Amino acid sequence: MEALKSYLLTAMLASLASSLLIRISDPRHKSYLRYVAGLALLLLLVAPLTTLAEDLGNVLSDSLPPAATEGEENEPQAYIGEIGRTMSRQIGDLIAKQFELPRDAISVKLTLDLSDLSAIAIYRVDVTVSDASCDVDAIDRYLTDALGCEVSVIGDLPTE
Q1: CATH architecture of 79-155
Q2: pTM of the model
């Protein structure tokens, strides 16, 4: 909020200063001064956009997987494993939250459809739950409805 207040104050002072300068200047030079003052105000208005673009670039670069190191291929296939692991974690977290199960009792394995790398889709989800109190049929129905793909849920009783 302080940054916005400071920016608006600067814009108002620059506008006021340029108006006063144009008023007291020689009439022969007023058109040049208007041109220069207009450019200065335009630059003042565009300055926050460059900061915003830099911040957006930083956010986007932070959200991307790390680039391949020297000697590795930097292709879309290099990121598919990370995408699959992230999706598996998120599906496991969703199941744990929705069915009030301990997260460590859920194992999720995904099969991805990689026929079109611009739109990676989930082909199949295999879930193993090692909690005897869970309703595997309810989990199966929930995931089938939510994901719209083939789902297999197995209740695996822990061995003691």
Answers
A1: 2-Layer Sandwich (3.30)
A2: 0.50
Percent above pLDDT 70 for the chain: 77
SS3 20: helix
Task: Count CB-CB contacts under 10 A for residue 139.
Answer: 21
The label of the residue with tokens 């565009």 reads 46
Neighbouring-strand partners of residue 152: 126
CA dihedral 85, 90, 91, 97 (to 10 degrees): 150
Structural contact between residues 63 and 29, judged by C-beta atoms closer than 8 angstroms: no
Per the CB < 8 A criterion, the answer to whether 153 and 127 are in contact is: yes
HSE toward the beta carbon, residue 115, CA cutoff 13 A:
4
Residue 54, both tokens: 């830099």
CB atoms within 10 A of CB 137: 10
Given a cut of 50, the residues of the chain with pLDDT beneath it are 68, 71, 160
